[in-house]
Amino acid sequence: MVGSITPEQNATAAEACLAAINDRFGGSGIETSVLNHSNAKKYAFVRIVCPPQHWIAVSKWMKYDLDVNYCSMVTGTHFPDGSPERGWEVAYHFLRQPVRNQTPNTCTVHDVEGLSGMDIPMEFEVLIPLPHGDSPTVPSIQSIWVGADWNEKETWDLVGIKFEGHVNMHRVLNPNDSPEGFHPLQKQHKLRYHDYNEMYDDPQGFMRKPADEGRVK
Amino acid sequence: MCSESEDAFTFEVEFMAEGDNFAAFNSRALVEMVGGVTDEALKATRIKQFLSVLAGRYFNWAGRKSLFTLHLGIKCCAIEMAAAATPRFDGDRFGVLFRSSPRQSDVLLINGPISKKFADKVVRLWEQMPEPKYCIAMGECAISGGPYFQSYNILEGVDTVIPVDVYIPGCPPRPEALIDGFGLLREKIIRIGAAPSAERASDKPVIVGED
Amino acid sequence: MGPQHPMTHGLWTLRVKVDGETVVDTEAELGYIHRGVEKICEARDFTQITPYCDRLCYVSAMTWANSYIYAAEDLLEADVPARAEYIRLISAEIQRLASHLMWLGAFGPDIGNLTLMTWCMRDREMFLDLLQELGGSRMHYNYPRIGGVKRDMPIGFADRVIAKTKLFEKRLDEYEMMLDESTIWLVRLQGVGYSTAESMVDAGVSGPNVRAAGVNYDVRWAHPYSVYDEIDWEPSVEKPTSVKGADCYDRYRVRMEEMRQSCRMVLDALNKIPGGKNTNYANGDEMIYTKAPTRAPEGATGFSNYECTRGASQFYIKGGGEGRGKNPYRVSIRSPMFLTIPYVAKTMIGYKIADIPAIMGSFDPCIGETDR
Fold first, then answer.
1. What is the ipTM for the molecules in this complex?
2. Which residue of B116, B150, B151, B156 is the best one to mutate when testing the A interface, meaning the one whose CB has the most A CBs within 10 A?
3. What is the pTM of this model?
4. CATH of the domain at B183
């Protein structure tokens, strides 16, 4: 039987992170909270809402003082109908993993109760709201985590959020000759056959009207 | 013609004028004359017609019994294609062998959605294949875009860029369906012989499962 | 090494700069099967997204569908009955077995061992038959539902699982005997493709690739999500033989050991499943399914962290789409291979061209999830 991280370990780690962040950055526009997931074991994670100008400082502190070593996901979202200060949002997900280089012929022994303090794995979510506009910009954390490199390229490619200071930005999923300024996940770009979406609510066609005759689903 | 100078390591090569021949006497005219006479004779006795029908039937049989397929794995249907080559379904007993180079394959089996980035590469692979060549569209994504028909990056079917001979519906089609698709392709080859692929685009499509 | 290549396990380009036989620089180019799944999912209901997630990593479809379902359950705040969690675990672990067999079956020919392809696919068919009993299809099952699973295990399924798993454990011995005693295999894999744990984690690599470097980190115990803490298993960790980190041999051994652990998990879960392993509840019965809300309020988010066969996969879903809530506003998919492939491209520098398939194959790429 392998032990898992217990809810108590998770809760204490989350509270410790919350205290540390508030200690360091409290009162400068950075809001931190500990929330619980609603799925699986309903564990806690730390959510930080950070304005873009403080992001580099927060990310450096997270990496070097809070031991957050894994940049997992960068998500950009376009809110054309959102509130004025949240026209775009970049959501970063990080994990803190207890990973150290091993001396040859050794491996870490599984001892979950022995994990404490900064060794307990923790999930972090950082949300950076950006105002409306044509060129949302966020400072790049490419030099802090290597894993942020391609994540930022993908976010720019698909959503159009610019990362200031990112070296060698290029298209990674869309074709290299895509038109300049084409970022498909922005809300003004519609899917092909967009006006057939309404018919997805009615797969058996009970609500088709005579005018729909001949229309292909 | 090359001549050796005193220094044994250097060669001097004389470039030939066009039409020149290494042989002591120019046999090109001889070959043309003999070839022309033989050709006329064969045509006159209908032997040429007979031989070409025989050869055509033979090559048709040989070609359809050993369809070399290009080793192209795009997406999920490629796993079913690989499964069709494995002991349980065994495509090899039908002569279906996977080749790495398009220059050496007969069949281009498209098994996945074609994105805009990959479209010109597919056309290039198709053009690199020598005649006679056939294309099989396997799976919904290759037939019509599949579940991604609304996507901004996926073409609505591979038949927008290359002519397709057999369609195998399914998502993914079972390996048995793929082998059946090869069987239907063999029947189609009997029908069409070695008609060039460019003229086949308007043929009625062959769809697996359609009776 | 272009998109059409027998080695690349998928459609991507690796540009290699060589000096003689030694690799000097590499550059990976992805995006040949970018389907825009994230955009398509904004126009689908939450149940309609599950088939898209099956097709993300087609070799291990069940784990990706489960990964999405956990995120959707976080968003919609759905509860899952215990029996459904057990069935999800069993299906995910059988899928992990099938996926690692596919990996081995593709990895063997890379190294030159063509019989491995036929052996592994033969055994994979056993597990695909089991998954077909659950989900209905050999590869894309659309099996988990938000709040449970679609249907219960058929009667006799448990006996078939036990028989096939026990047979497979003996087959694993055969594989190890064939491979670990083969000089060619050892020479081609050992000492090739070193990567340290910390550099991997910094680059975003996770899963068996990191466990091969001696680090015991597995999402199943670190961020527990299903009933893994109730069954008998251990994460499989390999000791690296060098200070330079894990080589291809370690990564191969980690996956063989993971296959054994998956067999162990499946057998143990069948013993402990609530309701018994030979009962079959009807579709929609409360033992296997709890009806979940279908609309997500504006501003709600769901996040799941799941141990897929190739690493940690995450979904981040924002609710409240189109003002109606039935569609998500944004679905963001994090695939472990998306960050692994650029990392592996850099790991190859300094080795020979002939080592490229060994290194690439040992990291187990699957381009379907990379290029969503």
1. 0.87
2. B150
3. 0.87
4. 3.40.50.12280
